[in-house]
Design brief:
The complex is a heterodimer. Chain A is of the alpha+beta class. Chain A contains twelve helices and eleven strands. In chain A, helix 1 packs antiparallel against helix 4. In chain B, strand 1 and strand 2 form a beta hairpin. The chains are: A alpha+beta, B alpha+beta. Chains A and B meet through helix 4, helix 5, helix 6 and helix 7 of A and helix 1, helix 3, helix 4 and helix 5 of B.
Chain lengths: 416, 134
């Protein structure tokens, strides 16, 4: 799995969540006569003469509230389509919250999830994939972490809230069932007895508390996603919690890509170098660095030493920066396609040559290893300190989102 | 640390911790994902006083008629104990409700008491009184 794949998953999550927001806040579903959607016409939160109280002293004139409803809708459309996603997500979320605050008694958890989800996904880099106007994402790992943390926090807080005696004794579920809030064949079967209520209460609280760790741990992630979806499906059948389950299902896509994000730091460094080929040689034995650069064309190559192993770290970026990173025995690419990576070893500290040990591997992100032949010769000027005859850059066609993929071969040492 | 990473850390702290924890500390728990974790009962006592000071017990359902759906769902049938979601918002805005009742009932003054009970805990009563302007 790769960062690109993670971003694609976030892109899909963005589309789904944006669509849910639009369905929930506009009269699109009015023909279905769903009771809880009655307030969505002409737009959710549209000012009326009905008595209401604003939360936190945020009472606004009706004209302003109506404008915010329109702004929220337009921004949600742009967010869903992937146009200026960060700005539109933030704008839609904030506008939605201000409108919601006009009626303090109208708050429900579904709104909270949908509107915070707009902000979280907007800021998480979800606009870099499946978007009409994709935004460059320079730090996919932090974006992914934000989206995942949000999902996990929902489960965690919900689980923590259930750590009370009334819930754990099954009394709450029993009362909810008796009141018809929890209903349906599944609920009737499980909650028919007090024992069933108690068991179900512990199971729900345990599941919510365990969900976060299980989602974060790569080995259990997929199973946790499936379990979470099943959990929300069961809730939809028995509790009918508005759009909450659908929104959570959308946000759970943040765990589907499952990329490592290990290349993020290098990716960000590479992004700072935009125009032309930049051959950068750095040497470091104690964390310091010296560099030599040359720029031309549209390909960037960064050679960075690994302070721990002394091995060269190569980063290649082409136009719309795409990255290959080679580091010691761990080689990854941000594309799903195979990447050719080459490592030139050098002797640590002294920097003197000790023969050359070059490894060339083609690494598939899923672990399969094969070979990829460069298809394009390098262009641009050589870097100072690196013999151009020893450096070859191959451009490989990308298969999905990367646009282009480069492989760098350093046919020699990285000299000090 | 890049600006976008800083922004994400701040946003994450806000949505994942500050908002939920803040709402718990504030008492409502509205932003703390507490859905269905507790069930409580509440009722609303609405008393209107005429100019002579005589008390008239009124059904709070009359206030639901011209309220938003969120408020109406809390007020309808609230003359007797009923289960419902958190009434923290209603409790926090009982003054506003009393003022609204003044307008709706044409009384000289209004007294509203929100009673809550949950899980064997002692009943909690919050009372607000509003003198209605003529």
């Amino acid at each position: 799995m790769t960062a690109a794949r993670d971003l694609r998953a976030l892109g899909i999550a963005r589309i789904l969540l944006g669509a849910l927001v639009l369905l929930r806040t506009t009269p699109v579903l009015a023909p279905l006569h769903v009771p809880y959607l009655n307030g969505a016409s002409p737009l959710l939160g549209w000012p009326t003469s009905a008595w209401h109280v604003a939360d936190a002293g945020l009472a606004l004139p009706a004209g302003v509230v109506a404008t915010l409803c329109v702004v929220r809708t337009v921004a949600a459309v742009l967010f869903t389509a992937g146009v200026r996603t960060r700005a539109s997500g933030l704008c839609a979320g904030v506008a939605a919250w201000i409108v919601l605050a006009q009626d303090a008694t109208g708050y429900i958890n579904t709104y909270n999830l949908l509107f915070l989800g707009l902000i979280v996904l907007g800021l998480s880099g979800s606009g870099s994939a499946w978007a009409l106007r994709a935004e460059a994402e320079g730090d996919p790992r932090s974006g992914l972490a934000l989206a995942r943390a949000f999902v996990v926090s929902v489960y965690a807080w919900s689980g923590i809230a259930k750590l009370n005696l009334a819930w754990l004794r099954g009394e709450v579920l029993g009362q909810l069932h008796a009141a018809g809030v929890v209903r349906g064949p599944l609920a009737d079967a499980i909650l028919a007895s007090s024992t069933g209520c108690t068991v179900a209460a512990w199971a729900v609280a345990g599941a919510e508390l365990a969900m976060g760790p299980l989602l974060f741990w790569p080995r259990t992630r997929r199973a946790a996603v499936v379990a979470a979806l099943a959990f929300h499906a069961a809730l939809e059948v028995s509790v009918h919690p508005d759009f909450f389950g659908f929104a959570m299902a959308s946000l759970l896509l943040a765990f589907v890509g499952a990329g490592s994000g290990a290349d993020v730091a290098s990716y960000r460094r590479a992004r700072s170098v935009r125009d032309g080929i930049r051959w950068r040689r750095r040497r470091s034995t104690d964390g310091g660095a010296a560099s030599a650069e040359a720029t031309e064309g549209a390909v960037q190559l960064l050679l960075l030493p690994d302070a721990e192993t002394g091995e060269a770290l190569s980063i290649v970026v082409i136009d719309e920066p795409r990255l290959i990173r080679a580091r010691g025995g761990r080689r990854r690419t941000d594309c799903r396609v195979r990447a050719r990576v080459d490592v030139a070893r050098r002797r640590r500290r002294s920097g003197t040559r000790r023969g050359q040990q070059q490894a060339t591997r083609d690494v598939h992100p899923d672990g399969a290893v094969g070979r990829v032949q460069p298809t394009v010769e390098p262009r641009g000027a050589p870097a100072a300190g690196i013999d151009p005859a020893t450096v070859h850059v191959g451009l490989l066609p990308h298969t999905e989102s990367c646009g282009a993929l480069a492989a760098a071969v350093v046919d020699g040492d990285v000299r000090s | 640390m890049s600006p976008i990473r800083r922004l994400r850390i701040v946003a994450g702290a806000l949505v994942c911790f500050v908002l939920p924890a803040g709402s718990l500390v504030q008492g409502s728990g509205m932003l703390a994902w507490t859905m269905y974790s507790r069930v409580g009962e509440f009722k609303v006592d609405l008393v209107a006083f005429d100019a002579a000071g005589r008390a008239h017990l009124r059904n709070p359902t009359v206030l639901a008629e011209r309220a938003t759906s969120g408020a109406a769902s809390l007020l309808a049938g609230a003359d007797h104990w009923r289960q419902g979601p958190s009434v923290a918002a209603l409790r926090a805005h009982l003054d506003d409700l009393a003022a609204y009742a003044c307008r709706e009932l044409g009384a000289a003054s209004v007294e509203i008491t929100l009673r809550e009970r949950a899980g064997g805990r002692p009943e909690r009563a919050t009372t607000r009184r509003a003198v209605c302007s003529p």
